[in-house]
Amino acid sequence: MAELDRRIVLWRNTIALFHERNRPRFIGPFRKAGYAYRVETPLSIRRTGEERSPDIVASSPSGWLVIELTCNDHSKADKLDSYRKIDPRNLGLYGLQIHQNAPDTICSRLSEVDDGEHSQIIVKDTVVVKKADLLSDEALRLALLDFSGTDLTRLPTIPISLLPESKNHEVRRGLVAIVMQIFQPGSKGKTAYQMVEEGLDKLSDKVGAGQKTVMRRKVEKEMEVLMNHHLKGYLELKGDGSYVPTGRFREHPKTLERISSALQEWAYTEQRCLDLPDPGAIECDGRGSEDGYTPEDDRTTSDPESFRR
Amino acid sequence: MGRIQTLQDLKEMLQAGFEDNEAILARYGLTRLTQLKAYLLETNYPIDEVGCPLGAWSSLDAGGWYVNRGPLSPNTLFLDTTRERVWILYTLLDATEADAVTDGWAKQIKGLDRCWLSRSHLLHYDNKETWQQRGLGLKFSDGLASDDEAGRFSLKAWYGATEKIPGLAEVLNTAKESFAIYSTRWQKLKEDSVTLAVEWYSNGKVTINRATDVDDVMLSISDMANLYEDALAEATGLRDDGLGAFELNFTQSIDLEAFSKTVAMGRGRMNLWLIETETEPDFRRFKGVDLHTWDRVFLDVGPDFAYLTIPGKGCVNAAPRIATIQGEDNAGRTSIFFDGVEVFG
Fold it and tell me: What is the interface pTM, i.e. ipTM, of the complex?
């Protein structure tokens, strides 16, 4: 099975820190410290009104914080510095508790990078907490230190299955369940754009039109491989741009198993021989490299300013 | 059957049935009344987008109440749509036909489903002073095992019998803790007389075995509908406010290999069509669709627990449905939690 999608894992393991489970017993440190959270919430800088949408904003009776999630190996110090100027009086718009002070700022990553004078949580397989002494909320500081070293490999999947910077194999994995829905009896199919919207889930409103266009092209490319190879004869593209089941599909266990197996092969085995260069990576800002990596690729935030570039 | 024009007509006819009042029943063209049943239905649509499973709906005088008209069994279905998310379908059809009509309707209409009552719902009257439990039904189909090896368990017990066989009460209690409850029988007492006897089922059905007052009957069914609607609203809020998952805790260990094979084909009572996306010896992740609604679901499954994520605007009714059906099929007693707190309870 291919390597797990790093960005989805980053989001999953960070979100889990706000939740609690019975089996296996797990109380996330933010949950323990009484924090409620919102994802990609528009806020503004005090006085200038400049918009900022931190990946996660959260508050508790004893403090509030913003978290930046990134797989990028560049420092996020500047971005996190700017978050300190966010006006906390708008937290009430999202049902969060209002505080007067600047937020605690945390960068969540899968590997350590120097993010300046900001706290850091590394959430790969086990939690590592860095610079916890910078946190002003004592309850949170203690909860995080106490949590350090906890196993994070068996946490619930999150509803987001596509991110703006998802690469080709990640796009396929993100599309699996969305493609399965196309086989609903009487289905009118789905366009690539609809698939992007569904895959982004709660991030959909925060991602700009340009970035969605790039994502749509990535989806079209991967769907072409699926339609012409793995699910040949079961799926077709109509003139209006929607992918629909062909007349050959019948809701029967054998057919469903055949499609399951084809989707698994398409999404969860290496597929380099069928891949074309990733158009999204190149068109994003023209700085694509051989493996499709661009600095933009590692941005897990949907910073509207970046998407307008 | 004669025409029912008003809610009062309906109540009068039902009351006459409870009292075997032949004179009043005759006004509706009846000599006796089939046992009254009701089904709690979870809906995502208004009535005009859903249609009627037998003929067409016609409004009664009271807002939100409908009766079926047409050539097929007219005046046998009565629908209370006064709640936004939970409807109550009352019916005088015989049990087999009523079950078939309700199942067919829910299957045909995407966005219409049964209400799936949790153990807490089924035991709702447990500490109510005027209510007394009279029996329960337990079920474990061992649906992931092969036919030869399946260790099925099915039991329906009347509580009166426990006093006649020493040790039976202990066996019942042990079984109750290990397996899913699919029905409970209750009676309501007033001055030592039974005024209402009902049996609630995990699929949201209730049968009225004995009653003295139609308003009492309708009120008790409405209370359960309200409880379920509150639980749906709570679960929807939890899903919408964050990116968390529902947690299902089981009492029986699941054979993960058999689970994976079953859901890859969309087979079995669970009606889930899933693809395994991550494999560990005692933990697997799945993505796919809930074939009841064709909504997407993500399921992460351990030996005695599962995390259920419902993306987008997928209906949260999937949580109690999957918990109920999987519990009765292969997972035993199942509870649903969110952040350690029981929901749909």
Answer: 0.88
